[in-house]
Design brief:
2 copies of one chain form a homodimer. In chain A, a hairpin with a 2-residue loop joins strand 2 (12-17) and strand 3. Chain A contains 2 helices and 9 strands. The relative contact order of chain A is 0.25. Chain A has 2 domains: 9-48 and 86-127, Elongation Factor Tu (Ef-tu), domain 3 (Beta Barrel), CATH 2.40.30.70; 51-84 and 130-162, no CATH class. Chain A has a 6-stranded antiparallel β-barrel. Chain A has a two-stranded antiparallel sheet with strand order 5-6. Chain A is 5% helix and 31% strand. Chain A is globular and about 50 Å long. The first copy, chain A, has 162 residues and is mainly beta. At the A-B interface, strand 1, strand 4, strand 6, strand 7 and strand 9 of A face strand 1, strand 4, strand 6, strand 7 and strand 9 of B.
């Protein structure tokens, strides 16, 4: 067991609304965007500030999160922001990057307006794009590609409704 | 600008050596592994403890990190653990998971022995597997799939030698 704690701090914020999705990078971090143009997708690490509570961070299992899944699922087997360290990961397709203003326009990101952004990385085929995937039977009908995500009826998969 | 800080704490540790790679999840977090078996790959978020210094965390650009790349590259355009929040992401192919002992055997992970693990997530094709990728010209000769990574001469790509 390692009981150290480490600190992270926001480098930007998600702006989401009216079909428009941007990531606004704060002034001191804008030079870090140099050379990111040209990557079609980015990885965004964001902080689940709505679930940064001792109760949520103490949860290790969820009761029946997926309609077609098992009765209990550990939080490391889900993508919910509810987990010991509420760091979420989203792939986002890049529309445009303006380094001077720190604005990254993306086609979509599944994070709420105002969400703190911790990190931005280039999506590299060599490190993220797995040819031979396998998933449990109960999720085998989920889309096999990021691009097919938008047309899928995710609402039917989750027992939790917003 | 958002000057808040958030805290994260290790949920496990990387054990790497002798061609053997495991992630050891600490006792209190082991129930979180339920249901993870069946996923062929996991996403591992780990803490770059060797670069968790004010100097490294204050760097926003790297000078010529790639032999065939631009003169300066922002840290958000690299995968180096040197960045404002030293949270690294690795995809790892799962060999086996023992929930009781908290041991996840993986085929490979590009993190040093002893590295603190912050989070484990299932690799989902629907959220991570991008069909239509694009990358800058200077990196277009890099592998297009995770599986082709191992056979590639990465040492020739980096100006930095360990």
């Amino acid at each position: 067991m390692d009981t150290r704690t480490f600190t992270v701090t926001p480098v930007g914020i998600v702006r989401a609304g009216n079909e428009s999705f941007t990531i606004e990078v704060f002034g001191p971090f804008r030079p870090a965007l140099r050379g990111l143009s040209g990557f079609g997708h980015i990885l965004v690490l964001w902080w689940g500030d709505r679930v940064d509570t001792p109760e949520c961070r103490g949860e290790t299992v969820c009761r029946k999160p997926y309609t077609k899944g098992p009765e209990t699922v550990g939080v490391f087997a889900t993508r919910s922001p509810v987990r010991p360290n509420p760091v979420a990961l989203s792939v986002a397709p890049v529309i445009g990057i303006d380094t001077a203003s720190g604005i990254i326009r993306v086609a979509y990101i599944d994070a709420d307006d105002g969400t703190p952004v911790l990190d931005i990385k280039p999506y590299l085929p060599a490190t993220e794009r797995v040819r031979d995937v396998s998933v449990p039977v109960w999720s085998s009908h989920w889309p096999q590609w990021y691009e097919d995500n938008a047309g899928f009826d995710w609402a039917a998969e989750f027992t939790f409704k917003e």
